[in-house]
Amino acid sequence: MPAKKPFSILFVASECFPLIKTGGLADVVGALPLALEKTGLEVTVFLPGFPKVIAGLKNTRTYANLKSVAGQKGKIITGETATGVTVLALDAPHLFDFDGNPYLDANGQDRAGSGEKFAAFSKIAAEIARGEIGRKSFDVLHAHDWQAGLSAAYLRASGDTRVKTILTIHNLAFQGLFPKSLLHNLALPTDYYGPDGLEYFGQISFLKAGVAYSDHITTVSPTYALEIQSDEGGMGFGGMLRAKAGALSGILNGIDLDVWDPAHDPEIKQAFSAKSPDGKTANKRELQKFLKLRPEATGPLFTVISRLTTQKGLDLLANMTDYIVARGGQLALLGSGDSAIENAFIAAANKHPTEISVTIGYDEPFAHRLQAGADAIFIPSRFEPCGLTQLCAMRYGTVPVVGRVGGLNDTVIDASPMALASEVCTGVQFSPINGHMLYSAISRTFDLYATASIWKKMVSNCLGQDVGWDASAAEYRDLYASL
Ligand code: ADP
User: Fold this and answer.
1) pLDDT of residue 230
2) Is the pLDDT of residue 380 over 80?
3) What is the average per-residue pLDDT within 281-286?
4) Got the DSSP string for 277-346?
5) For residue 75, what are the β-bridge partners?
6) Residues 422, 476 share a domain
7) Element (H, E) at 218
8) Pick from 157, 170, 27, 29: nearest CA to 88
9) 217 pLDDT above the threshold of 90
């Protein structure tokens, strides 16, 4: 009997680590396909052909020539990432031949023309999935976030019901909103512009199109799947997502255990692992030396590796720096974002130069060194779909201090009296998300750190957590099969 053909899945996304990354979406799209392939599926990732994407691919060849992509010629290139993910890239220089942030211009404003560009990208995605472009069709089109949201609408409009569609919402705050005038460029049936389709308070939402026309919707943690069905957490989508509750589920993200491996990390000074955690101390000393922080500090060295935005609650943390220093703690921050938050941390570093270090920017290797050298990481998010930095932190024995929301609720075990007694805790959570509760979480963290045996156990619990993809990949595989 011939072997059964594996399910083939087409991921449609705007980012993929290590080709192009602005946040957690890229990490997921870079790592999940490899984990799914281990479960016996075939996964291909369709990406916009940004210069970095095309330059980063190996073994490239032309997959298809396109007569018209948004009015001009283009082609689809196939190749592989350095990590072995199979990629199709839409090589259409009139749409994607620019460097820098894919969505924001140099002034931090939304890039002009994004609606037309990602609509064209999504239309091509639907045609690839159906086999209209290229030689094969796919069983499932798995769209990620608003940039890919319209692909489900294009598939529905084609009348094809064979290809099943999934939309994963990585962050409901990014809704892909465009003026209604874009409609005539989309080449979709006019009745798709309505409350059950693309229409969103008089505008068009690409994310809403994905919600409306996909067979199933996932988001990246079970708690966030519930939060987005509420009026408060739903950011305008709550009612629609409640109505879709039967086709909505939360599957936790993991991290790539090869990219994040303290036992074999070329970026860090001293290797360590759950079995031999002591190497962490050498990494802390190295980090203090590099950042010119006082090595005699008695408290924990905290880190922040993040977009500096109010979503991440870092405006609240900026008010706590004096308190952290007063208790003998230190802070090493890496990130960029809102200038008010950047400036508040820069002022704190100027005030306490031997205790607080602030690096404004994006630096992947430095993020590894911070995770390896810090004792604890702050993630005081107001909402957090899943969060990856707490997973990286635990893998590196760095204790997460987090808001009890979304995926932070699902992945961190608070050091409550019961969890301490049963020795299972991995971090500190606080709720509701406000300055007062953050303050008490920081105070609690100092107290835990002061008892060496407790802290050592928490670090060892973190190092022992399974933060990889295997369990979640199996959940996605079962979901594809159920469709
Ligand atoms: P986001 O909401 O930004 O996607 P996540 O926690 O899901 O947040 O993922 C953020 C990813 O980006 C993590 O891999 C984190 O290490 C990384 N990251 C964030 N800011 C920086 C930075 N300034 N430098 C290096 N890596 C960063």
Assistant:
1) 96
2) yes
3) 97
4) GGGHHHHHHHHHHHHT--TT--S-EEEEEEEESTTTTHHHHHTTHHHHHHTT-EEEEEEEE-HHHHHHHH
5) 65, 91
6) no
7) strand 216-219
8) 29
9) yes
Q: Does 347 lie in the same domain as 212?
A: no
Are 193 and 320 contained in the same domain?
no
**Nearest CA among 177, 145, 155, 131 for reference residue 8:** 131
Q: Which 3 state secondary structure label does DSSP give 75?
A: strand
Element (DSSP H or E) covering residue 79: strand 72-80
141 C-alpha to ligand 1 centroid (Å): 26
293 assigned to some structural domain? yes
Does 313 contact ligand 1 (Cβ within 6 A)?
no
Same domain, 153 and 284: no
Give the per-residue pLDDT at 1. 55
Instruction: Give the DSSP H or E segment for 184.
Output: helix 183-186
Tally of domains in the chain: 2
The answer to whether 316 touches 433, Cβ cutoff 8 Å, is: yes
Same domain, 80 and 115: yes
Q: Is 117 helix (H, G, I), strand (E, B) or coil?
A: helix
Separation CA 400–CA 379 (nearest Å): 7
Read off the amino acid at residue 210.
Answer: G
Nearest ligand 1 atom to alpha carbon 392: 16
Share of the chain above pLDDT 90, in %: 96
CATH number of the domain at 439, please. 3.40.50.2000
Domain assignment present for residue 3? The answer is no
Alpha carbon of residue 64 to chain centroid:
30
Tell me the HSE value of 88 on the side-chain side, using a 13 A CA sphere.
27
Identify which of 306, 338, 410 to mutate to test ligand 1's pocket (most ligand atoms within 8 A of the CB): 306
- Clarify whether residues 213 and 324 are in a common domain: no
Residue range(s) defining the domain that contains residue 308: 279-463
Does residue 2 register a pLDDT over 60? no
Tell me the three-class secondary structure of 125-148, residue by residue: HHHHHHCCCCCCCCCEEEEEHHHH
Quick check: CB of 27 below 6 Å from ligand 1? yes
Residue 15's pLDDT band, with cuts at 50, 70 and 90, is very high
Tokens matching residue 18: 């290590």
Does residue 207 surpass a pLDDT of 80?
yes
Q: 345 and 230: one domain?
A: no
Nearest CA to ligand 1 atom 3: 23
Beta carbons of 298 and 375 less than 8 angstroms apart: no
Residue 133 lies in a domain: yes
The CB density around residue 459, as the number of other CB atoms within 10 Å, is: 21
